[in-house]
């Protein structure tokens, strides 16, 4: 027994020692496991950018956009910490773009570059330099039909949307991907969580993919992005550009023209330029209530960024998307600048990088940093002034109806019954429409308030309602809301509102092939006697429906009600607020004028403004007969910025 007991004790001691060694080894192994480091509420740059894995895969989509009998494969260029091959799981930040080999990305038009084996060397923009060292993968995805992906682009339609969705599915094991040799590749390094970001078309793809409800897309950051391609190219039956689908898809596709020529022709034919109506083509490209993407399916949080003077991706794309997200209680945040088609990296750089960092940390890394407890909306109130508020439009906004009068004044009182104003639907520029207000002109009717007794802020979407009679079956109508008053404003009409400097600031780590440094910018400011604050257009035939044209019989009156583009703008004390009613706006609308004589019943017409003010009326708000605006107006038309 003694021997047996001693043997038992010896065995127990040996087992105990062995277990201790295993435990110690496990503990040591655990202590060396790579992990994300968080300090002061944000992830820290503890992973080497220079040593990061750079690779690419081809994800198989569910569409055959070029009709070659095989599903299109989507090229995905990936950079991720080397530790993600050693057990570290990382989320993905995705910028899907059609611009990587044509216009490039960002203010400096950066393009991808590759090594001799086709592996990516340079990832445009700062996302890779900044976020990879903090424990993220960054994926630059070539939209179907562009750069190194298969297929044909289809301007926001099925191929565009489902190509990006396939990448999210691959990260979550639901889609296949292949390497250059055709061997299957799995995303074993992925946590399954992804965020999509990008400006213009890139941000549009983020909206579109989110609207599919794909699981794993945790957040999107759409910057100056489209939510409805109809709104991008139409307003209430009027056309901004003819044959635009073939134009844009050809711009982004650098393959030989013949490859996708038939697809481009079919896109133009389906768009319906002859009527300007909303049809099945546009419904496929509608991410609010579309056939492929629908806001009601959105699972991702949304950090929406837009510039209020963007006349490329106009602000109704932002406002309708934002409101629809709010109706569904989608977690969301918004920034609104006073520039044209410009990225926040180029007008509020330090604050932007910090805010984006905390946003991605919260939604992709699970860092509790309080960002969702901050005010939801950041609004630029002046060239150097930003305000924060609970939401946008500003809470407690009053809808105030301003009424035009026969003497050219604009106030709160209705015009006398039977008073009218008449103009002809001519094709003319906004400069012509706003010049020499106070002097009668055949192509417009103009109305102004008196000098404002105090600053007056408008936040949201003005609505125009006119009772009109035509002498022809239809007319194009324009409504302009104008601030008459000398003021230094952001000069969004020139260079988007920024000047690019020669010095640089750096965000993240660099390599010889991919540096993290970008030229700084300065806000442009111009002092002018007026500014067009909001604008909106309609074809009278579309007064009742966007899908069906309905002529207004000559001599019969009808009510035409439509929204202008939204804005957030402060009219300064002493300025005058003006409303211009006219026909065809040659500055932005391509339709021909009808030549119709338009008679407006002033007693039954109004423009309703969302005003942030306890008492928007009061002494001096009404107009004074006989006031004249600048005799000549020379507001530069901004150069189109597609990307």
TrEMBL record:
<dbReference type="InterPro" id="IPR000383">
    <property type="entry name" value="Xaa-Pro-like_dom"/>
</dbReference>
<keyword id="KW-0732">Signal</keyword>
<dbReference type="InterPro" id="IPR008252">
    <property type="entry name" value="Pept_S15_Xpro"/>
</dbReference>
<feature type="signal peptide">
    <location>
        <begin position="1"/>
        <end position="30"/>
    </location>
</feature>
<keyword id="KW-0378">Hydrolase</keyword>
<feature type="domain" description="Xaa-Pro dipeptidyl-peptidase C-terminal">
    <location>
        <begin position="357"/>
        <end position="608"/>
    </location>
</feature>
<dbReference type="GO" id="GO:0004177">
    <property type="term" value="F:aminopeptidase activity"/>
</dbReference>
<keyword id="KW-0645">Protease</keyword>
<dbReference type="Pfam" id="PF08530">
    <property type="entry name" value="PepX_C"/>
</dbReference>
<keyword id="KW-0720">Serine protease</keyword>
<dbReference type="Pfam" id="PF02129">
    <property type="entry name" value="Peptidase_S15"/>
</dbReference>
<protein>
    <recommendedName>
        <fullName>Xaa-Pro dipeptidyl-peptidase</fullName>
        <ecNumber>3.4.14.11</ecNumber>
    </recommendedName>
</protein>
<dbReference type="InterPro" id="IPR013736">
    <property type="entry name" value="Xaa-Pro_dipept_C"/>
</dbReference>
<feature type="region of interest" description="Disordered">
    <location>
        <begin position="613"/>
        <end position="643"/>
    </location>
</feature>
<dbReference type="InterPro" id="IPR005674">
    <property type="entry name" value="CocE/Ser_esterase"/>
</dbReference>
<dbReference type="InterPro" id="IPR008979">
    <property type="entry name" value="Galactose-bd-like_sf"/>
</dbReference>
<dbReference type="GO" id="GO:0008239">
    <property type="term" value="F:dipeptidyl-peptidase activity"/>
</dbReference>
<dbReference type="InterPro" id="IPR029058">
    <property type="entry name" value="AB_hydrolase_fold"/>
</dbReference>
<comment type="similarity">
    <text>Belongs to the peptidase S15 family.</text>
</comment>
<dbReference type="GO" id="GO:0006508">
    <property type="term" value="P:proteolysis"/>
</dbReference>
<dbReference type="InterPro" id="IPR006311">
    <property type="entry name" value="TAT_signal"/>
</dbReference>
<dbReference type="GO" id="GO:0008236">
    <property type="term" value="F:serine-type peptidase activity"/>
</dbReference>
<keyword id="KW-0031">Aminopeptidase</keyword>
């Amino acid at each position: 027994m003694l021997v047996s007991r001693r043997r038992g004790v010896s065995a127990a001691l040996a087992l105990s020692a062995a277990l201790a060694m295993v435990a110690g080894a496990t503990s040591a192994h655990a202590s060396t496991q790579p992990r994300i480091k968080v300090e002061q509420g944000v992830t820290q740059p503890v992973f080497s950018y220079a040593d990061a894995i750079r690779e690419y895969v081809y994800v198989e989509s569910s569409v055959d956009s070029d009709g070659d009998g095989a599903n299109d494969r989507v090229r995905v260029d990936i950079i991720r910490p080397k530790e993600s091959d050693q057990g570290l799981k990382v989320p993905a930040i995705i910028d899907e773009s059609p611009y990587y080999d044509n216009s490039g990305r960002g203010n400096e038009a950066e393009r991808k570059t590759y090594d001799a084996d086709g592996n990516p060397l340079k990832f445009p923009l700062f996302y890779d330099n900044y976020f990879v060292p903090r424990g993220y993968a960054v994926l630059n995805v070539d939209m179907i039909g562009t750069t190194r992906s298969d297929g044909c682009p289809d301007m926001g339609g099925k191929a565009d949307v489902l190509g990006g969705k396939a990448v999210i599915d691959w990260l979550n094991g639901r889609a296949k991907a292949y390497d250059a040799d055709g061997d299957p590749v799995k995303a074993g390094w992925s946590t399954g969580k992804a965020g999509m970001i990008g400006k213009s078309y890139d941000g549009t793809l983020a909206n579109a993919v989110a609207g599919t409800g794909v699981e794993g897309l945790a957040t999107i950051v759409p910057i100056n992005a489209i939510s409805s391609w109809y709104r991008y190219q139409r307003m209430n039956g009027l056309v901004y550009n003819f044959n635009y689908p073939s134009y844009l898809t050809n711009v982004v596709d650098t393959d030989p023209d013949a490859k996708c020529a038939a697809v481009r022709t079919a896109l133009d034919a389906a768009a319906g330029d002859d009527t300007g109506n909303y049809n099945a083509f546009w419904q496929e490209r509608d991410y609010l209530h579309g056939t492929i993407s629908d806001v009601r399916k959105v699972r991702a949080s949304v950090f929406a960024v837009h510039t209020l003077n963007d006349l490329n991706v106009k602000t109704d794309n932002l406002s309708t998307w934002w409101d629809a997200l709010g109706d569904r209680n989608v977690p969301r945040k918004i920034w609104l600048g006073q520039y044209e088609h410009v990225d926040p990296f180029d007008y509020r750089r330090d604050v932007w990088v910090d805010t984006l960092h905390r946003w991605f940390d919260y939604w992709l890394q699970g860092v509790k940093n309080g960002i969702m407890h901050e005010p939801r909306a950041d609004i630029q109130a002046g060239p150097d002034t930003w305000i924060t508020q609970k939401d946008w439009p500003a809470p407690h906004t009053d809808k105030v109806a301003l009424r035009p009068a026969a003497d050219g004044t604009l106030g709160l009182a209705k015009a006398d019954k039977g008073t009218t104003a008449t103009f002809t639907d001519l094709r003319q520029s906004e400069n012509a429409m706003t010049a020499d207000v106070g002097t009668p002109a055949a192509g417009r009717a103009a109305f102004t308030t008196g000098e404002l007794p105090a600053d007056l802020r408008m936040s949201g979407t003005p609505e125009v309602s006119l009772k009109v009679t035509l002498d022809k079956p239809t007319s194009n109508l324009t409504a302009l809301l104008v601030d008459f008053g000398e003021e230094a404003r952001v000069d969004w009409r020139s260079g988007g509102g920024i000047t690019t400097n020669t010095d640089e600031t750096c965000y993240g780590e660099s390599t010889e092939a991919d540096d993290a440094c970008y030229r700084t910018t300065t806000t442009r400011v111009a002092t002018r006697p007026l500014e067009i604050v909001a604008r909106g257009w309609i074809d009278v035939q579309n007064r009742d429906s966007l899908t069906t044209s309905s002529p207004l019989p000559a001599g019969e009156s009808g009510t035409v009600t439509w929204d202008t583009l939204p804005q957030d703008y402060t009219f300064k004390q002493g300025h005058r607020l003006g409303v211009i009613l006219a026909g065809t706006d040659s500055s932005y609308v391509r339709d021909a004028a009808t030549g119709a004589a338009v008679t407006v019943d002033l007693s039954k017409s109004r423009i309703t403004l969302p005003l942030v003010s306890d008492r928007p009326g009061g002494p001096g708000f009404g107009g004074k007969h006989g006031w004249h605006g600048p005799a000549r107006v020379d507001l530069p038309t901004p150069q189109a910025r597609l990307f």
